[in-house]
């Protein structure tokens, strides 16, 4: 009988769920990639339904870890053993895949990160703070404008002989520039390649500024699928990028590993509430805490009429 | 004792001076100063997009555009020489300060550019002449063992420094009726000196305005401070404690009084703390009286958008002028 | 005309300042606690590129004035390099433009303060004035004691929320206490009260120092309740600068001492000398120096906070990576403005503490590989 750890990454663009074998971190029984569409609860509900339909039983789950921007909400509802930020999750997964990794480039839907590691320990990190120009959403929007399916974006870029230079600080200016370049006779391929280079440049100028980028470099996140971007990075940096096997679910993988860690550390059974919890009725409510003069506004979650979690307090007493 | 102990420097005999920020703050000839001490000065080339991009990787993203370009100048110079002179201007007259970024500039550059280089600097506070003279002496002693040269250099600084007096005689510089006006009229352009002098920083606005047939008066042609005029100085506010803050407020005030100046353009940079406050003080006053255009620039400013605004501004001015003429 | 005074919030320090002003004979109008509304008001009236502290304090003042105040008190004089020295002019200009006719009173340890207060209250004697200042000082010290104890103990507390409740209880008591004789007893009570909190000293706690722009260090609103968030995440937090130190920092005598005698600040300046040679405004030099002092005291990391477009701290922020690599202490520089979202901000803080924790207590990172 196999037992598993679940890792969940609830991001703004996609919700990823992995089922990790309890004996071997590298063996993923399932890796789901579901669009969030602004509704993390719904997407997770779908995900859990798929897992249940495939015959996995809640009893075989040894632990659950959650990461991503909706981690507190989801973690409290499903009963997660570890609720951690995306940077730690990605770093942990990267170390697991490649123990001597020194740099992680992670480009997701709405944020991008760089993590610097030495001897398996994070020593520095950075996140995009300003805008979307260094993230997947940027490509998504441009692909839509050019009427190219995002999946083929990379192929298009590789076909270009000479990319054009596109000023891509933000999506609005990039569009102006794209129109301008088309007027000058640039082909679609050249523009796509130019956009890939613009993204790489933006990333290196904003997120990676002042960081010492050393090999081996792991490139993960949904954007790693795009070969055009990989090429652009390799051209700018002059080194090879490694794309891990499960590049698009690395955050989820990391949170699965963190759950395993948490379970081993505390030696307590998981507090996971089972796949069915998502099928029940959820209600979110704002309530005021009157315990002290801070008067924090709490978020209260009721599942099937029962209060399962409260958070949003400054003192932390409602959080588990 | 100060006999040219900076060996590294003696070997090269070339000192690089980046042309940005503090370079524009005064009209003192560092070239002549270092020549007395036996060194050749190499200035960086005019700013260009390449200059900016070469330096951009070292600069924190929340620095302002002029600082980012300054890095580029330093990087460009480091290809030619290993010695860079960055004067640490702290004040140009008593009771004022330069921008904090200018004050911290030498150490900022030294501690953020990874390439090893030899930084020479001296704190220059023109409000405290003895202190500054002493600093110049220390600087000169680093560079030469020859007491005569040191003496001459310091004396040279002392004498020419007087030329930096903030009180530029009003009659000499300030534009009056005699000014030759262009076809379309006279525009006052206000900003920090580097914004007015470096075409990369101001995106060639000054030249473009001349092409449109305007004559320009810049805030540099006004004194940094002064009470000669009988108008309320500094918009009835307390004197700002920044050198060029005073200059800008004074210039705007005088431009408003000057009937020949038909419109005012203020050039500032995104993230400039001083200008954010200054503009708040004079904005309403100008808008009531004259066409006013405020341009907040940075490395991302698109030229197309900029030109649209300048054209709109000049149209506005010409139309207003025409109206006045018809009415009169 | 009745003189009603209001003043900007700075964290919970209103407790102390309210007392100072009312003891001087003013009727005090405490503005409503800083909220999103305060910030919105501040943003509406401030220049777009003014710094966050300016926007928040302006919002406070306007809210206070609307409650009926006709005098505003503010910290910060007319000297210095950064924009703080010009705040008063900007307040006056903006308030007047928007139809608020008020007078400005600079609260500081200078003769000028006494002269101005005397104008409002001609009967006040110098003796009374000095006594009020002394009481204020005593209160300020006690306030800081409460604040520091709560920060030190929070990561260890067993019942979450104990420290916060204890802090608030004592702040309320402090607010109600005005006799100086009672203050001494209160101080003892506070020490005892905090000692009675049950703690777990075996936890994996990391020590972080906090440096940067002064207002952000003390204001909980603009840093999105960072203190509590970090405390609950197992961080022992220490500020580089106390309000009391800030308050006397502008004194000429103090600066003279710091330049020539081996005071704490003197040490800080010496350590910072390689990076920033002279004051460049704000607390940029202190930020750099204190970060190194934290390293020497054995702290695990430093958080450097500064508002967007703050000229001095931007320089410090740029130099921070160099300090970090020279001295081997992780420094997280965060630039705050009104657009800083809580989620992204907390993710960065959490990732930073995780990074340090995993380095300091590696056992948690190795265990799972079985």
Strand order of the largest sheet of chain B: 8-7-9-10
Mean pLDDT of chain C: 87
Low-confidence stretches of chain B: 163-181
Q: What percentage of the residues of chain C does DSSP assign to strands (E)?
A: 5-15%
| Biggest β-sheet description of chain C | 4 strands, parallel
Question: What is the CATH class name of the largest domain in chain C?
Answer: Alpha Beta
Number of strands of chain C: 8
Fraction in beta strands of chain B: 5-15%
State the end-to-end distance of chain C.
78 Å
Can you tell me the CATH architecture of the largest domain in chain C? Answer: 3-Layer(aba) Sandwich
Largest interface: B-C, 33 and 43 residues
- Write the H/E string of chain C, N to C: EHEHHEHEHHHHEHHEHHHHEHEHH
Low-confidence stretches of chain C: 365-370
Instruction: Please bin the fraction of helical residues of chain C.
Output: 55-70%
CATH architecture classification of the largest domain in chain B: 3-Layer(aba) Sandwich
Task: Write structural notes for this entry.
The complex is a heterotrimer of chains A (320), B (328) and C (370). Chain A has 320 residues and is α/β, with parallel strands linked by helices. Chain A folds into 2 domains: 4-89 and 251-279, Nucleotidyltransferase, domain 5, CATH 3.30.420; 99-243, Nucleotidyltransferase, domain 5, CATH 3.30.420. Chain A has helices spanning 40-53, 71-78, 86-97, 136-146, 153-159, 171-183, 188-206, 227-237, 250-266; strands spanning 4-10, 14-21, 28-35, 61-67, 82-83, 103-107, 112-118, 121-127, 217-220, 241-242, 282-288, 297-303, 306-311. Chain A is globular and about 65 Å long. Chain B is an alpha/beta fold and 328 residues long. Chain B folds into 2 domains: 7-164, Rossmann fold (3-Layer(aba) Sandwich), CATH 3.40.50; 175-327, Rossmann fold (3-Layer(aba) Sandwich), CATH 3.40.50. Chain B has a 4-stranded parallel beta sheet, sandwiched between helices. A two-stranded parallel sheet of chain B has the order 1-2. Chain B is globular, with a radius of gyration of 21 Å. Chain B starts with 6 loop residues before the first helix and ends with a helix. Chain C has 370 residues and is α/β, with parallel strands linked by helices. The radius of gyration of chain C is 21 Å and the shape is globular. Chain C starts with a strand and ends with a helix. Residues 365-370 of chain C have low confidence and may be disordered. Chains in contact: A-B, A-C, B-C.
């Amino acid at each position: 009988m196999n037992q598993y750890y679940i890792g969940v990454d609830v991001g703004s663009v996609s919700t990823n769920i992995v089922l990790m074998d309890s004996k071997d971190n590298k063996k993923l029984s399932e890796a789901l990639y579901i669009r969030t569409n602004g509704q993390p609860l719904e997407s997770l509900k779908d995900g859990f339904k798929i897992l249940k339909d495939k015959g996995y039983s809640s009893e075989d789950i040894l632990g659950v870890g959650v990461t991503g921007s909706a981690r507190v909400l989801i973690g409290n509802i499903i009963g997660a053993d570890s609720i951690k930020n995306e940077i730690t999750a990605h770093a942990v997964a990267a170390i697991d895949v490649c123990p001597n990794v020194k740099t992680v480039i992670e480009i997701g839907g709405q944020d991008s990160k760089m993590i610097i590691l030495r001897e398996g320990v994070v020593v520095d990190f950075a996140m995009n703070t300003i805008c979307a120009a260094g993230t997947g959403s940027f490509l998504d929007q441009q692909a839509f404008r050019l009427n190219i399916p995002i999946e083929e974006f990379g192929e298009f870029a590789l076909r270009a002989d000479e990319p054009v230079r596109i000023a891509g600080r933000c999506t609005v200016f990039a569009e102006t520039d794209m129109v301008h370049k088309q007027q000058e006779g640039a082909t679609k391929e050249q523009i796509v390649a130019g956009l890939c280079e613009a993204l790489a440049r933006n990333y290196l100028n904003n997120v990676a500024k002042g960081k010492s980028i050393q090999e081996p470099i792991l490139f993960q996140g949904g954007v790693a699928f795009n070969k055009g971007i990989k090429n652009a990075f390799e051209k700018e940096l002059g080194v090879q990028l490694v794309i891990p096997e499960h590049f698009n679910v690395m955050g989820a993988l990391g949170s699965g590993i963190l759950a395993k860690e948490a379970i081993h550390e505390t030696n307590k059974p998981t507090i996971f509430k089972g796949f069915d919890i998502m099928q029940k009725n959820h209600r979110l409510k704002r309530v005021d805490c009157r315990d002290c003069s801070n008067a924090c506004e709490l978020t209260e979650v009721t599942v099937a009429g029962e209060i399962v979690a409260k958070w949003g307090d400054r003192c932390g007493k409602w959080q588990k | 004792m100060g006999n040219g102990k900076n060996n590294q420097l003696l070997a090269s005999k070339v000192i690089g001076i980046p042309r940005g920020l503090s370079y524009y703050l005064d009209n003192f000839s560092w070239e002549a100063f270092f020549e007395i001490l036996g060194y050749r000065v190499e200035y960086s080339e005019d700013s260009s997009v390449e200059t900016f991009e070469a330096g951009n990787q070292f600069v924190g993203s929340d620095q302002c555009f002029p600082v980012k370009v300054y890095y580029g100048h330093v990087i460009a110079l480091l290809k030619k020489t290993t010695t860079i002179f960055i004067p640490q201007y702290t004040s140009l007259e008593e009771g004022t300060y330069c921008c904090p970024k200018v004050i911290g500039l030498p150490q900022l550059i030294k501690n953020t550019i990874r390439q090893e280089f030899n930084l020479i600097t001296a704190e220059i506070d023109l409000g405290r002449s003895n202190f500054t003279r002493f600093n110049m002496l220390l600087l000169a002693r680093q560079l030469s063992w020859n007491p005569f040269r040191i003496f001459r250099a310091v004396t040279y600084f002392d004498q020419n420094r007087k030329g930096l007096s903030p009180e530029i005689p009003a009659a000499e510089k300030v534009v009056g009726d005699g000014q030759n006006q262009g076809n379309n009229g006279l525009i006052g352009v206000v900003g920090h000196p580097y914004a007015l002098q470096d075409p990369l920083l101001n995106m060639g606005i000054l030249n473009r305005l001349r092409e449109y047939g305007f004559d320009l008066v810049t805030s540099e042609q006004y004194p940094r401070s002064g009470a000669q005029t009988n108008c309320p100085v500094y918009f009835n506010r307390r004197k700002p404690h920044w050198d060029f803050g005073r200059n800008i407020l004074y210039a705007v005030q005088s431009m408003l009084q000057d009937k020949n100046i038909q419109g005012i353009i203020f050039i500032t940079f995104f993230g400039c703390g001083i200008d954010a406050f200054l503009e708040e003080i004079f904005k309403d006053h100008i808008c009531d009286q004259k066409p006013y255009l405020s341009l907040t620039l940075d490395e991302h400013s698109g030229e197309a958008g900029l030109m649209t605004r300048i054209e709109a501004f000049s149209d506005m001015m010409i139309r207003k002028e025409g109206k006045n003429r018809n009415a009169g | 005309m009745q003189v009603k005074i209001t003043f900007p919030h700075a964290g919970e320090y209103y407790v102390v300042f309210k007392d100072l002003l009312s003891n001087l004979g003013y009727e005090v109008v405490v503005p409503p606690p800083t909220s999103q509304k305060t910030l919105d008001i501040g943003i509406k009236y401030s220049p777009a590129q003014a710094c966050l502290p300016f926007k928040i304090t302006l919002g406070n003042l306007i809210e206070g004035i609307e409650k009926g105040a006709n005098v505003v008190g503010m910290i910060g004089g007319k000297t210095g390099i950064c924009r703080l020295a010009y705040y008063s002019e900007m307040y006056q200009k903006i308030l007047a433009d928007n139809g608020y006719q008020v007078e400005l009173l600079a609260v500081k340890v200078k003769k000028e303060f006494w002269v101005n207060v005397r104008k409002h209250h001609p009967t006040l004697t110098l003796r009374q004035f000095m006594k009020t200042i002394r009481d204020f000082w005593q209160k300020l010290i006690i306030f800081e004691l409460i604040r520091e104890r709560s920060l030190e103990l929070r990561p260890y507390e067993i019942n979450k929320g104990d420290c916060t409740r204890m802090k608030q209880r004592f702040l309320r008591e402090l607010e109600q206490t005005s006799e100086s004789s009672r203050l001494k007893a209160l101080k003892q009570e506070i020490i005892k009260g905090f000692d009675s909190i049950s703690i777990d000293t075996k936890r994996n706690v990391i020590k972080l120092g906090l440096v940067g722009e002064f207002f952000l260090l003390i204001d909980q609103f603009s840093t999105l309740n960072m203190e509590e968030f970090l405390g609950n995440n197992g961080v022992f937090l220490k500020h580089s600068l106390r309000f009391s130190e800030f308050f006397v920092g502008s004194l000429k005598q103090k600066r003279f001492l710091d330049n020539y005698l081996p005071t704490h600040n003197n040490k800080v300046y010496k350590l910072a000398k390689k990076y920033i040679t002279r004051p460049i405004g704000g607390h940029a030099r202190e930020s750099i120096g204190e970060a190194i002092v934290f390293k020497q005291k054995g702290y695990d990391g430093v958080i450097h906070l500064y508002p967007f477009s703050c000229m001095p701290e931007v320089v410090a922020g740029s130099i921070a990576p160099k300090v970090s690599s020279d001295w081997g202490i992780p420094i997280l520089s965060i630039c705050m403005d009104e657009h800083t979202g809580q989620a992204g901000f907390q993710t960065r803080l959490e990732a930073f503490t995780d990074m340090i924790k995993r380095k300091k207590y590696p056992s948690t990172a190795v265990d799972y590989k079985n």
